[in-house]
């Protein structure tokens, strides 16, 4: 195998350079002389994450597709801490990115399974107010392109960034309770009836009746011409209200002074 460098990072004071090689080794070099100082052994797959500590020049963090996260003392060439990202029932999750906090007391990683991993000192209680699984219900909605090649949401025909705030759901698409929905910016003051999950019963293709959150209808339901979901209806209604407000603002602006003496005020 021909060696290839996959990632490179300088330490905090620029005295050392660390390179990740596709033979799974990390190499520590003297940045002034180019001398190889240490081979860091521990990874079992390619490494694409190298992060230096924000103020401790000895510390370097590495993470890779093998699910391993290491904290190294690069001056000694030793391993200080190790974490393996094992996911129950799914094997390990490759670690794709990692960053230290400015104070150096915490770091956060993201993996191939959509997890955000937060490491640090102290108590984890502040993080317990949010659910384990958080997705927006629009994350996997189909997109289309218009005649100008701009991207639009297929259902509302709106640019995704102009759509109303989405709902928070779990990995299966089930909406979270009201207290979590209000964590979404723009939904802090929504009425309860717009945030409470709706349950219903649907028949699968083999005739089995299962409980399902209304709003997560399947392709089969679309083909059978069943009623649109409650969630989709809410999104359509919110989009309509937003369009009406935008139209009213534009009409107000166009009816304002035309001689440049002033600008119309929004209601």
From TrEMBL:
Per UniProt, which keywords does this protein have?
A: Repeat, WD repeat
Could you tell me the superkingdom of the organism this chain comes from?
A: Eukaryota
Outline the segment boundaries, as ranges, of region: Disordered. Answer: 241-267
Q: Where are the transmembrane segments?
A: none
PROSITE patterns, per database record: WD_REPEATS_1, WD_REPEATS_2, WD_REPEATS_REGION
Q: Which GO terms describe its biological process?
A: cytoskeleton organization; regulation of cell shape; regulation of transcription by RNA polymerase II
Name a Pfam family for this protein.
Answer: WD40
Where the WD repeats fall, as residue ranges, is 1-39, 40-82
The record's listing under InterPro entries reads: Bromo_WD_repeat, WD40/YVTN_repeat-like_dom_sf, WD40_repeat_CS, WD40_repeat_dom_sf, WD40_rpt
The name under which this protein is listed is: BRWD1 protein
Q: Please report the organism this UniProt entry assigns to the protein.
A: Cochlearius cochlearius
What gene codes for this chain? Brwd1_0
């Amino acid at each position: 195998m021909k060696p290839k460098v996959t990632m490179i990072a300088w330490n905090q004071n620029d005295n050392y350079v660390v390179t990740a090689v596709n033979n799974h080794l990390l190499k520590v070099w003297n940045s002034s002389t180019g001398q190889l100082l240490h081979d860091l052994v521990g990874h079992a797959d390619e490494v694409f994450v190298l992060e230096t500590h924000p103020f401790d020049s000895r510390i370097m963090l590495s993470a890779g597709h093998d699910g391993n996260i290491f904290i190294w003392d690069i001056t000694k060439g030793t391993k200080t801490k190790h974490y393996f990202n094992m996911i129950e029932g799914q094997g390990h999750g490759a670690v794709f990115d990692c960053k230290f906090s400015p104070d150096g007391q915490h770091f956060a990683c993201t993996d191939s399974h959509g997890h955000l991993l937060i490491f640090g000192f102290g108590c984890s209680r502040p993080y317990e107010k949010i659910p384990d699984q958080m997705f927006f219900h629009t994350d996997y909605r189909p997109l289309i392109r218009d005649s100008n090649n701009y991207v639009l949401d297929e259902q509302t025909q709106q640019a995704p960034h102009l759509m109303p705030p989405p709902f928070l759901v779990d990995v299966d698409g089930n909406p979270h309770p009201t207290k979590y929905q209000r964590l979404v910016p723009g939904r802090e003051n929504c009425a309860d009836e717009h945030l409470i999950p709706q349950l219903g019963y649907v028949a699968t293709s083999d005739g089995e009746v299962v409980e399902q959150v209304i709003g997560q209808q399947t392709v089969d339901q679309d083909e059978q011409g069943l009623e649109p979901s409650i969630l989709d209806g809410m999104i359509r209604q919110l989009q309509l209200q937003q369009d009406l407000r935008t139209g009213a603002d534009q009409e107000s602006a166009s009816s304002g002074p035309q001689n440049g003496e002033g600008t119309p005020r929004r209601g």
